[in-house]
Specification:
The complex is a heterodimer. Chain A is an alpha+beta fold. Chain A is about 30% helix and about 20% strand. In chain A, strands 11, 12, 13, 16 and 17 form a five-stranded antiparallel sheet that branches. In chain A, a hairpin with a 3-residue loop joins strand 8 (about 215-225) and strand 9 (about 225-230). In chain A, helix 10 runs antiparallel to helix 13 (about 370-380) and helix 17 (about 475-485) runs antiparallel to helix 18. The relative contact order of chain A is 0.14. Chain B has helices at about 1-30, 45-55, 60-75, 85-120, 125-140, 145-155, 170-200, 205-210, 215-245, 250-255, 260-270, 270-300. Chain B is globular and about 85 Å long. Classes of the chains: A alpha+beta, B mainly alpha.
């Protein structure tokens, strides 16, 4: 019965309603926008919290759109995650610090403008400058002159453009970085590095109402907070042309409603199957349900600035807590297999050649109650005999798994009160507590990668003073290995060095890896060739309709 | 009457200022919203400071409030974090919720008063008991249960209606959500009408009307119902404001992008301009609905008059 289409009787009932209510302004009688347009994918969407500018979008929902309407220098292969040249013809360097970038010929924006070296340089200068308050400004911090356009202490910038960027000719520009960074070219697939047309700078407000990019799709209409209609752009010259006529992104406030709409045939694609439906999703959708790894890892991070939790003895306690968590059971019972127990600090989407190393965490990530008890005791026990796990209660189902983790720890320690969850009302408050160093025990942390590189899973999170090092972990050995990796000229060498750095984490355990998160999606019978990329975003361009 | 209405309108000014300040204070007390704009990543301090300055968040509370009220009186309700003016959000959200509320109120009035009158006139008989039982069930079932169940039955199993409402939110699509929203109030309307009818059925003027030999339908509609409606109208008047603000659950279930949705988003993202702006309008709606109710008293019962 599930997913039954509109029956004849129902149509009659509806048309009767339409007749009986003619006096009222009606638009939905006789189909309206409820029906499916030929060749167009109807997909669920969330309202992006920030304005839709490339350097301002740091959430999945906004990233979805950028991925459709923009192509940058590089693009991550949706299957392998490998960074391949998109608009870049060549990116060359002899010293891992000065790069020369040459663009492919004949690429244009959807409004007819040519994509030139200036399209990139202007966009990056815009993104980096503090006056524009772009959330992703820090992506440009490795380019020389960033401290002038974006003074760390606040205040007025002393330059308008990044001194490290130079336009050589229409198709070539050079970049000088502040330090050696061997994997830097591979980061250029990130949306913040997208080129921008002149229209963006000339009429910014109009551009925001209807963004113009250079990708396989163009925006036909955008009603903020409810729907964005994208249509395939005929002028696109890349290899990944859209195989469908377009995509309608519809904002859903609740993923349960989106799922119900999918069942009723009003929607073609949901890329976030609600937790309550995971039990039924296989019988509802069969093989139209996708559950595959994404570049997201969840950890329990320790406040290393708190003396109760730092020091060599406490490393034993941290490892012990990790051993006390029954990851296999929690991922199965609470997440219905949509998460995989973590055994390192990266993600399976990197693959082995990209730096993923299953089992790198070793015994410390294996459930072992007896040794866990011993280790915690050897380290002097939990500080004050108990611990809390802090999480934000306003989104996700964090309470469920935090309680389960605590349960696991309590069972191992044979005490009901050794571990309790500590909810914080809102995400903003939670973030403020974290940056304000107010955590008194382990807290939940999630990391969604910016680009499929091992560097992105380690440096921003555990390097001394790094931007997202919320536990304020600092280890000279770790920092040295990361520096060495960044200076390495060969790819394999860099990855080996990053792995060595990761082994420091396995010893010190400043953050306990919990599980890798999967992307989950479901789609209707109208669609085929639906796949998710490593960011758990559907690869819209390759979806076929009908 | 005119002077009474004017005085009531003037009274709204302090209520308006007081309530906006309270809401402003409460949203402010939730803490600094800027960190959340950066997602799971730590905000860059310099950028965060700029955003705070732009949103007036670096000023003390009273200056923020003064700045905000200055904006409100010049017809500008601030800007949401996604760069959209709050007035634009209101223009898209209020008509939708208003339509939803109209559906709910019409439904609860038509069905509630009818059921109330019928069971009041047949007090203690089978119909009265079954209506009592029915209303008890309706009151006991929370909106999110009745909403999801009806949505699933009508939208998926039988396919009679769309499970979600399209952005344009035409009236036909709002029928089911409107009924869901009106269900609980329907029960109250029924109970109130019934009690009032039972009470007034023994009143002198009804007995007089019966003695005069008036036809039954005239006694019920002109004499009995008109006087019995006063508590019901009071309830419905206050209910309009409550329905508009309380549509959060219903709007979420049926994906209606109305006031409830915007409020929910605003609170989740701690966006004070959105929350305060929307609640301010809701306060005005509430005040006006109450004024209307008070004025309606005089129409229903000429003995109640305002000088």
């Amino acid at each position: 019965m599930r997913g039954a289409p509109y029956s004849l009787r129902a149509r009659r009932a509806l048309s009767a309603l339409c007749v009986s209510a003619v006096a009222l302004p009606l638009t939905a009688c006789g189909g309206g926008d409820g029906g499916a347009e030929d060749g167009v994918v109807r997909s669920s969407w969330g309202d992006p919290p920030n304005p839709l500018e490339p350097a301002n979008i740091n959430d999945v929902q906004g990233g979805k759109v950028l991925d459709m309407i923009f192509r940058g220098l590089k693009r991550y292969d949706p299957r392998t995650g490998e960074a391949k040249n998109a608009l870049a013809d060549r990116i060359e360097s002899s010293d891992q610090r000065n790069y020369t970038i040459t663009l492919k010929q004949g690429r244009r924006f959807a409004n007819g403008e040519k994509v030139t070296a200036a399209s990139f340089v202007n966009a990056w200068n815009y993104g980096a400058r503090i006056d524009h308050k772009q959330r992703n400004a820090y992506f440009f911090e490795y380019i020389e002159g960033y401290d002038k356009v974006h003074p760390a202490a606040g205040g007025a910038p002393t330059a308008k453009t990044l001194s490290g960027l130079r336009i050589k000719d229409e198709r070539t520009f050079t970049v000088r970085l502040t330090q050696k960074f061997s994997t830097w070219p591979k980061t250029l697939g990130y949306n913040a590095y997208a080129p921008l047309p002149r229209a963006f700078f000339e009429d910014h407000a109009a551009w925001l109402r209807k963004p113009v990019g250079n990708g396989p799709y163009q925006v036909r209409s955008y009603t903020k907070g409810s729907v964005m209609k994208l249509r395939a752009w005929g002028g696109y010259r890349g290899p990944d042309k859209a195989r469908n006529k377009g995509v309608d992104l519809r904002v859903y406030t609740d993923n349960n409603t989106a799922y119900t709409d999918l069942q009723a045939g009003n929607l073609d694609l949901v890329d976030d199957v609600p937790a309550q439906q995971l039990k039924f999703v296989r019988s509802d959708l069969g093989d139209r349900y996708i559950n595959q790894p994404a570049g997201i890892i969840q950890t329990l991070t320790f406040p290393m600035y708190d003396r109760a939790w730092s020091g060599p003895a406490k490393a034993k306690v941290r490892r012990g807590i990790s051993m006390a968590i029954n990851r296999a059971q929690i991922t199965e019972r609470i997440f219905h297999g949509t998460r995989t127990p973590a055994t390192d600090w990266t993600s399976p989407v990197l693959r082995r050649q990209g730096g993923y190393e299953p089992g790198l965490c070793g015994d410390a990530c294996r459930y072992d109650p007896a040794r866990a008890r011993k280790l915690i005791k050897a380290g002097g026990g939990l500080p004050g005999g108990r611990m809390t796990i802090t999480y934000n209660a306003d989104s996700g189902s964090h309470k469920d798994w935090v309680d389960a983790v605590c349960n696991s720890v309590n069972t191992v320690l044979r005490s009901d009160r050794a571990c309790v969850g500590k909810p914080v009302g809102t995400f903003a408050d939670y973030r403020n507590k974290m940056t304000g160093k107010e955590m008194t025990g382990p807290f939940r942390a999630g990391w969604q990668m910016d680009y499929p590189l091992i560097q992105n899973f380690l440096q921003p999170l555990y390097y001394s003073g790094a931007s997202s090092n919320d536990g304020h972990f600092s280890d000279t050995g770790f920092d040295r290995m990361v520096n060495q990796a960044n200076a390495a000229s060969a790819d394999g060498r860099a990855i080996a060095d990053f792995r060595d750095a990761e082994k420091v984490l396995a010893q010190q355990m400043p953050a306990i890896p919990l599980w890798y998160q999967n992307g989950s999606a479901g789609y209707s019978q109208r669609l085929s060739e639906v796949a998710l990329n490593q960011f758990s975003v559907p690869v819209y361009a390759q979806i076929r309709v009908g | 009457m005119g002077r009474y209405a004017l005085r009531r309108l003037l009274q709204m000014i302090p209520v308006f200022i007081g309530s906006t300040f309270l809401i402003f204070f409460m949203v402010y007390a939730l803490g600094d919203p800027v960190a959340a704009l950066f997602g799971d990543k730590a905000p860059d301090p310099a950028t965060a400071a700029r955003i705070r300055k732009d949103l007036y968040l670096d000023e003390p509370l009273w200056r923020q409030y003064a700045h905000y009220m200055g904006q409100v009186f010049s017809g500008h309700f601030g800007t949401a974090f996604n760069g959209q003016p709050v007035t634009e959000l209101m223009a898209s959200a209020f008509p939708v919720t208003l339509r939803l509320t109209v559906v709910a109120v019409v439904f609860e009035m038509a069905l509630g008063i009818t059921l109330g009158v019928l069971s009041g006139l047949r007090r203690g008989r089978g119909l009265d008991t079954s209506v009592l039982l029915l209303t008890l069930i309706v009151v006991a079932v929370p909106t999110f249960v009745s909403g999801t169940v009806l949505q699933y039955l009508f939208g998926v199993t039988w396919g009679w209606a769309r499970p979600s409402v399209s952005p344009a939110a035409p009236l036909t699509e709002l029928l089911l959500p409107g009924v869901v929203l009106g269900l609980v109030s329907l029960a109250y309307t029924t109970r109130l009408t019934r009690t009032s009818i039972v009470e007034n059925a023994r009143a002198d003027y009804v007995r007089t009307a019966v003695a005069k030999g008036l036809p039954r339908h005239r006694i019920v509609t002109r004499h009995l119902l008109r006087n019995s409606l006063i508590p019901v109208v009071t309830f419905i008047g206050t209910d309009i404001g409550a329905l508009m603000g309380g549509a959060i659950v219903t709007e979420r279930i049926f994906n209606i992008h109305g006031v409830g949705y915007q409020l929910y988003q605003g609170i989740l993202r701690q966006n004070s301009p959105t929350v305060v702006g929307f609640v301010t309008i809701l306060v005005i709606v509430f005040l006006l609905a109450n004024l209307l109710v008070d004025l309606l008293y005089a129409v229903l019962d000429p003995r109640i008059r305002y000088a």
